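Shape matters. Shown next:

___
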Amino acid sequence: MKPYSARASSVEGVSTRPAGRPARSKKGGPPAGTSDIIRHRLHPRIWEKVIHTLLFLCASLSIFTTAGIIYVLIFETVGFFREVSPLKFFFDTQWTPLFAEKHFGIWPLVCGTFLTSIIAMLVAMPIGILSAVYLSEYSPERVRRVLKPALEVLAGIPTVVYGYFALLFITPLLQKLIPPMSGFNALSPGIVMGVMILPIVSSLSEDAMYAVPQSLREGAYALGARKLHVSFLVVVPAALSGITAAFLLGVSRAIGETMIVAIAAGQQPRFTLNPLVPIETMTAYIVQVSLGDTPHGTLEYHTIFVVGMMLFVSTFALNIISHWLRRRYREAYV
């Protein structure tokens, strides 16, 4: 009579190995299939680490880029101030670094930049808020789905087209109304810049108003308020943080605009607030000097970076103010 183990193994298709335990290899090594199990367990961990590293590098790319820009600006700005006194830079009212008699007062460029930006915001802010109120409170959903993308198409038009539109269409039109206006001026590019940044102000403001809870509107209607009062006395104050952020973001976009002011504003730095005369902005000066005629390493070359530093500080300060206002006046709804 055969032993029990022999009889059990002779039964076809029946295994005597306990359930859940891998079979031993013929040479007495680790159980068969152990390497496959380890491989399947290690592969997800390796891929998770690889993906985590890639995501970290992508997130850090903007930080490293900003750090590199700041380093270059600081390095070149220090080189500029080794040759030019900060007192001349901040207290002189003339900017003529490319002339024989050199002056390095930054205020004409700053004045021209903020003049065009203020004109742009005077155009974009009221129109943007009114269009946002209409899209959020008055327009049917079908109209909103059509008008909002159509409005955002303005952001996709090249700024060179805007520049020549200001120079060849807006300026002659304004000269008929204001004869003393010069062919190059601050008013025309400021108006066109306002049209260019209109989608930023309108879209972000409309998103902020659309996010206001419906219960606030219903409560105002229950108190007897009309739709106009609800829109401007309830919804707009409730969305004030988002509207303020849209306003400051539009200002930052206007300050950094290059081609419109380079084409239509002229290249004459003047310490003036008159929008009818030629002016020069910080970005237009950078374009003027960066055309390739300025030798590398010269004082004129360093002026590119010191003006860029002023531009960077201006936009950075506006972004900080925007974040602070957004956190300060942000409404929390339950």
